[in-house]
Amino acid sequence: MIHEKTYYSIEVPFKGRTLILEGPISSESLHSYDFHTGLVAFRPPKQQKEALLGIADLPEGRINVVRDGNMIVGYVTFLYPDPMERWSEGKMVDLIELGAIEIALQYRGAQIGKNLLRFSMKDNAMEDYIIITTEYYWHWDLKGSGLDVWGYRKIMEKMMNAGGLEWFATDDPEICSHPANCLMARIGKRVNTDSIQQFDQLRFQNRFMY
Fold first, then answer.
1. What is the DSSP letter of 50?
2. Where are the beta strands (DSSP E) in 24-151?
3. Closest C-alpha to 181, from 210, 163, 208, 157
4. In this structure, how many other beta carbons lie within 10 angstroms of the beta carbon of residue 50?
5. Is 108 helix (H, G, I), strand (E, B) or coil?
6. Helix (H/G/I), strand (E/B), else coil: 190
7. What superkingdom does the record give (predicted)?
């Protein structure tokens, strides 16, 4: 059933202590947690927490988090694509976007991002969706990671692969504006053929232009 939310949680070891992966979490739960000051990839931590609170209460909105005690140290969001992007043009109820994934710098290097995506896909409801992510190099933490564009792209691809997302071709101008940008997607087992064809039409809108 589309938009059904069932809470899950698992424990993972990290440097002698235990982290909690949980979700989809409600805005009430999210509000009660502290937000790590290192979560700055998209906007200042306080503003990012406010943005996540808004997503949590959307019918399709899903936020899964990594928690160290009472502090959120990582998160991933799933929601409908931005109305300004082509991916929303079909108004598909079964297409959602992995809008953001972020792990605080001090918690990187232990496959926490991969574990968070694997955890997210354990949710049976994800089999009802086409899940996309649009990767743009200007969103990547090149400075914090010490990697160049291609090194970071390789890391991002491997992390998304852990969640079952694979590279898909597209003629979207923003993605095509730099060779490191890419579209990745995971097609759930219960997604019907009509939705897959509609997704293909969204991916290629200029195929007859020369």
1. H
2. 34-35, 62-68, 71-79, 95-103, 130-135
3. 157
4. 13
5. coil
6. coil
7. Bacteria
Please provide the DSSP assignment of 146-164 as one string: T--HHHHHHHHHHHHHHTT
Question: Quick one: tokens of 148?
Answer: 């160049």
User: Which residues, 6+ apart, have CB-to-CB distance to 206 below 8 Å?
Assistant: 171
DSSP state of 81: P
Token pair, residue 103, equals 């792990």
Residue position matching structure tokens 């002698």: 16
pTM for the full model?
0.91
Closest C-alpha to 130, from 67, 81, 86: 81
Residue pair 86/95 in contact by the 8 Å Cβ criterion: no
Tens of pLDDT along the chain (210 residues) come to: 678 899 999 999 999 999 999 999 999 999 999 999 999 878 888 899 999 999 998 999 999 999 999 999 999 999 999 998 999 998 999 999 999 999 998 998 889 999 999 999 999 999 999 999 999 988 887 877 788 999 999 988 999 999 999 999 999 999 999 999 999 999 999 999 999 999 999 999 876 543
Q: 170 near 205, Cβ under 8 Å?
A: no
Kindly list the domain boundaries of the chain, sorted by start residue. Answer: 8-203
- Give domain 8-203's CATH architecture: 3-Layer(aba) Sandwich (3.40)
Cis amide linkage into residue 24, ω under 30° from 0: yes
pLDDT at 1: 62
